[in-house]
Amino acid sequence: MESEQLYHRGYSRNSYNSIASASSDEELLDGAGVVMDFHTTEDDNLLDGDASSPGSHYAMSNGGGAPSSSTHLLDFLEEPIPGVGTYDDFHTIDWVREKCKDRERHRKINSKKKESAWEFTKSLYDAWSGWLVVTLTGLASGALAGLIDIAADWMNDLKEGVCLSAMWFNHEQCCWTSNETTFAERDKCPQWKSWAELILGQAEVSRRGMYIYWALSFAFLAVCLVKVFAPYACGSGIPEIKTILSGFIIRGYLGKWTLMIKTVTLVLAVASGLSLGKEGPLVHVACCCGNIFSYLFPKYSKNEAKKREVLSAASAAGVSVAFGAPIGGVLFSLEEVSYYFPLKTLWRSFFAALVAAFVLRSINPFGNSRLVLFYVEYHTPWYLFELIPFILLGVFGGLWGAFFIRANIAWCRRRKSTRFGKYPVLEVILVAAITAVVAFPNPYTRQNTSELIKELFTDCGPLESSQLCQYRSQMNGSKAFTDNPNRPAGPGVYAAMWQLCLALIFKIIMTIFTFGLKVPSGLFIPSMAIGAIAGRIVGIAVEQLAYYHHDWFLFKEWCEVGADCITPGLYAMVGAAACLGGVTRMTVSLVVIVFELTGGLEYIVPLMAAVMTSKWVGDAFGREGIYEAHIRLNGYPFLDAKEEFTHTTLAREVMRPRRCDPPLAVLTQDDLSVEDLQGVINETSYNGFPVIVSKESQRLVGFALRRDITIAIENARRKQEGIMLNSRVYFTQHAPTLPADSPRPLKLRSILDMSPFTVTDHTPMEIVVDIFRKLGLRQCLVTHNGRLLGIITKKDILRHMAQMANQDPESIMFN
């Protein structure tokens, strides 16, 4: 065995009941915001271990169990053993076994449905349970998203002041019914009072002080709730969702406490003014809903693979309510998060996204009859020349994405390796204080990020009062709002450009340090804001260039005087898509999401050009997106299907045991006693054992998991008479010939996997990696001429891939 173990796997539970029970969510995560303790469990540690490792011994009672009346009714060997086939926390599911279980359940239901009307009704319920669970998930996701949107909007305005006539109204709603509001000062009304007016007078220092006070209060409350009640509620959740959908078990990550705390703290975190968004965490919220509702249906609660189909649909519903993009949500689930996505999951994902969007539209949280705050429509066509600035925005997005991933991962790694990471509350308070102090003077950093994106996306018209629309009128040279699209920029536009440049620098710096804090933090909105700022700056620059130099050959053909040439808001939208694509490396789903945001088919080509350019530029510096980078940082056992394996190694070079290791721990099919089996379990920490015919032949019979063996022995001691330490254990169909005075034997054939996946020692690792990815294997046995040689686990593959990439294989596993 290897001299240095990553950690030692073993149970410290003294009874079957504790083994079968689920873990709580008290462990912390550290990745895209999370510190997860992997020191007592492991996913695929089938060979790593140490006989002296703490917690690796089972407390098994000696001798036979108490007599049970069930022994005389049914032989224990023919009964299904409770607990067998379940998984411990931080383990990977066996996709093949789960699919086999589901097929067997389906055959059983079909064989019984003609026996009676009740059985037929049960079969109908089973067939429709998938649609019921995604309907409930969509309803809950839409309702929670509407609640979060309304609450976040209200609490964001609460930092500025309060509505005296109705405290639950935000600033805009408070002034709706006022008769004293003028068009020029539409945001001012007697019913709305700032905190400075109410408490400290009109001083600017008072306004700033109250703004900082509320920002720090919201951030402090959010991080305390997360730390005390639900540590899994921090971060965006998408890296962990990707890992869970690949088959990893993280108990409590999608539980009810996580859902409740994430919903509340997401509102607080957004209202605190931190450089984060609520769109990414909405995917986590929707998946929590899907996980909770799946326990209402045995078809999904008892099968981890089927449950992941529901979670795939839930992630589509999450993006649907986050961006008002049902089709984009389905494509996001398919392209970005899902590991296994059959056709029926595509249909159910579409239906869940539809239901969620319908509920959100019914709630109408923004009061504009739209699903998102920054819905825009453009009526100006784009011209071929504009592809040049669009592609330049794509280059900027790719460079920003590559820079952000490296900087954020470096900071998160430093946080984990220094004492600073031990004080998450202090870190959140410090970042929130810096954000509030620096953001207050600039109106583009002080306002809510979604409001900022809305302002940057919106095209200028006669009803717009933004500084970005303060163009000079050609008639009298004074500031005016005009419909004339070909107009020179006024002082307000130039002042706004300087403020946007400062806001761009501020957002870039603060987003690097904010993503990964121990509060719910999404990355979609900050990335889109950075791209929208850059795009609006470029759009105004091109617009003024076209105005002052309309006789250039670039503009002469299509941008005549008085023509509607340049739409700066379109540049903001393209820049937002490019920066989000550079960070996440999304392509098709991102284009569809932004297309659904704008409702204009004619802008598909600019979006595609910018997003693909962004991906190509980003891939030149590293192929993984921010979510894959955080998965790797946190050491999750995730085999990325997008990553190619091009090396020429063979299975025998990766399998264990190696030449310097002890022999492979195996079980023989019919000559072990309970005491021998208990000794093998106590002396090793492997999660499974190959079963062979005999030590001499090494012919493979099957594979038995450590957890299943332990549960079966404990269950047999309680339910069977005469099970002693010297009872013979056999995995064959028929019991071996035993002396007459021998104790009753124990048959464990029902827990044996009779068809484990095997490869020969000369199989290329490229094929082995492909098998693991496409079948979701936990382990694969290696044979030579039918004789067992060794074993390859998912962890062995991850370690080997890191070694081939010139990385320390021991430094990246389960940090």
Q: Tags for this entry?
A:
about 800 residues, mainly alpha, Clc chloride channel, 3 domains, 3-stranded mixed sheet
Give an account of the 3D structure.
The protein has 815 residues and is mainly alpha-helical. The protein folds into 3 domains: 131-363, Clc chloride channel; 384-472 and 485-634, Orthogonal Bundle (Clc chloride channel), CATH 1.10.3080; 651-805, CBS-domain (Roll), CATH 3.10.580. The protein has helices spanning 16-20, 95-112, 117-158, 171-174, 195-200, 204-229, 238-245, 256-271, 279-294, 298-301, 304-323, 326-337, 343-363, 387-417, 424-439, 443-446, 449-457, 491-514, 524-548, 553-556, 568-584, 588-598, 604-621, 626-634, 651-654, 674-683, 706-719, 765-775, 794-804, and strands at residues 161-163, 192-194, 667-668, 672-673, 688-692, 700-705, 728-730, 746-747, 758-760, 779-784, 787-793. Strands 3-5-6 form a 3-stranded mixed β-sheet. Strands 4-7-8 form a 3-stranded mixed β-sheet. Strand 9 (758-760), helix 28 (765-775) and strand 10 form a beta-alpha-beta unit. Helix 14 (387-417) packs parallel to helix 24 (626-634). The radius of gyration is 31 Å and the shape is elongated.
- Global outline: elongated
CATH class of the largest domain: Mainly Alpha
Look at the structure and name the CATH superfamily of the largest domain: Clc chloride channel
- Name the average pLDDT: 81
Query: Biggest β-sheet, characterized?
Result: 3 strands, mixed
Concise description?
This protein is mostly helical.
